[in-house]
Design a protein that fits this description.
The chain has one helix and no strands. With about 80 residues, it is mostly helical.
Length: about 80
């Protein structure tokens, strides 16, 4: 009987370990889903920033062109 008691205790311990591991797995999967969401948001923000930087560069270039036109006009006067 003692061997059966030890076997039963060992099985109970293993089942408790399995339950704990499943819980940890669920927690990690949830955390991973959150990280994937943050990764997507980060990518979107990066794309927005790149677009804004490109727009800013285009605006600066147009302003420089206008300033050059004004300089040429002032010099011709």
């Amino acid at each position: 009987m003692e061997i059966l008691d030890r076997l039963e205790a060992k099985i109970d311990g293993l089942l408790a370990d399995i339950i704990a591991l499943k819980s940890e797995k669920d927690r990690l999967q949830s955390e991973l889903a959150g990280l994937e969401s943050l990764k997507l948001e980060n990518q979107q923000l990066k794309e927005q920033l790149e677009k804004e930087q490109a727009d800013k560069s285009a605006v600066v270039e147009r302003i420089d062109t206008l300033l050059k036109k004004l300089e040429v006009t002032e010099q011709g006067s």
